[in-house]
Write a structure and sequence with these properties.
alpha+beta, 5-stranded mixed sheet, two-stranded antiparallel sheet, 17 strands, 21% strand, elongated
């Protein structure tokens, strides 16, 4: 059998800033960490504040003695039953230790096992199942070692660790040298690209047709003075955020846009989103916080928009300002936050 491949993967290309396009350069403020980790209070975590994962009803049958009934395969007649020996279970301390270690790894903290072990043990014994359970009972230990039960327990404990550790910095710290797109080192891009004039780069680095279309749109708008696809880590701009797992992550937005609105110059960080996956809301919150705090300490105003493909598709937009007002209205219509932010509240 032969398979014909018709869609060839994009050819790897070199993307770099062009000296002749210096007028399209954009400098993004460089800040110190906007969130920091502090482990000093982890031992004071209140296990009763960690949400229960299962209800009493969900585990009632599981904790019973495991017994299998046997039936004749021809007649279907019941011919007996037998208790099943699943082997020697782990000791309760080993089960708890396994959950602690996995939660620590997921939350990406180090050297906190001794501090967190008693907290997690108390949580498992008294709160995780909506009722008190005896960790020394054999079936309880088997249940806690079962991935179907262990995994969601690890996840909720890791989130609690992350939430306990994360504290906002009291003030934003500006670094002396911003992220200047003109200083980006040449890089190799193996996905889609688009051609544009109002960017300092020779090509616009994109992931899909939606992003390519958005880049072409920006290039054609009179109220866009300059823009760039940020190409993740290649242009280096990022903000730290708390993942749903409880670990710290780095968020690399998709676009930066310099807009002319009347006599004002406005700067936008933009995310073009096809599907909203786990963690998107946390990224939205982190970049909104960055825009708010940066706008308080620099001369420029920085805003954020998340342009969802579901909103974008089918729109006949004639200016970048129509995107601004459209996304703002979309947020208001949905009664949500995170799609749009501008620091002075008037756009």
């Amino acid at each position: 059998m032969y398979v014909t491949v018709t869609d060839k993967p994009p050819v790897a290309v070199r993307i770099e800033p062009i000296d002749e396009r210096r007028k399209f350069d954009i400098a993004i403020p460089r800040t110190g960490p906007t969130v920091r980790r502090d482990t000093k209070d982890l031992g004071k975590m209140d296990p009763s504040k960690i949400p229960a994962v299962f209800s009493q009803g969900e585990i009632a049958g599981v904790l019973d003695q495991l017994r299998v009934e046997f039936f004749d395969i021809v007649s279907g007649r019941r011919i007996g039953e037998k208790d099943i020996n699943l082997g020697v279970p782990l000791l309760s301390g080993e089960v708890v230790a396994s959950i602690v270690n996995k939660a620590i790894a997921m939350a990406k903290v180090t050297e906190q096992f001794a501090v967190l072990y008693p907290v997690v043990k108390k949580y498992l014994a008294e709160y995780a199942f909506g009722t008190s359970i005896d960790l020394d009972v054999e079936n309880v230990r088997r249940l806690l070692a079962d991935p179907a039960y262990e995994t969601p327990l690890v996840e909720v404990i890791a989130r609690a660790i992350g939430n306990e550790m994360i504290t906002k910095t009291t003030e934003i710290r500006l670094e002396p040298h911003p992220f200047k797109l003109s200083e980006t080192e040449p890089f190799i891009w193996r996905r889609q690209t688009a051609k544009a004039e109002k960017t300092i780069f020779n090509l616009v680095a994109t992931y899909n047709n939606f992003e390519s279309d958005f880049g072409k749109f920006l290039d054609n708008q009179k109220d866009v003075l300059a823009f760039a696809a940020l190409a993740e880590h290649f242009t280096k701009f990022n903000v730290s955020y708390l993942k749903p797992s409880g670990a710290l992550g780095l968020y690399y937005p998709d676009w930066v846009v310099k807009q002319k609105k009347g006599r004002e110059i406005q700067y936008w960080i933009i995310e073009t989103k096809g599907q909203v996956h786990d963690g998107v809301l946390q990224k939205d919150a982190a970049i909104v916080d960055w825009c708010r705090r940066v706008s308080e300490v620099v001369d420029e105003k920085w805003g954020y928009m998340r342009v969802d493909q579901s909103w974008w598709t089918g729109k006949n937009l004639n200016s970048f300002e129509e995107v601004v007002t459209g996304v703002k209205k979309n947020q208001e219509d949905q009664g949500v936050t995170g799609l749009f932010y501008w620091p002075d509240k008037t756009v």
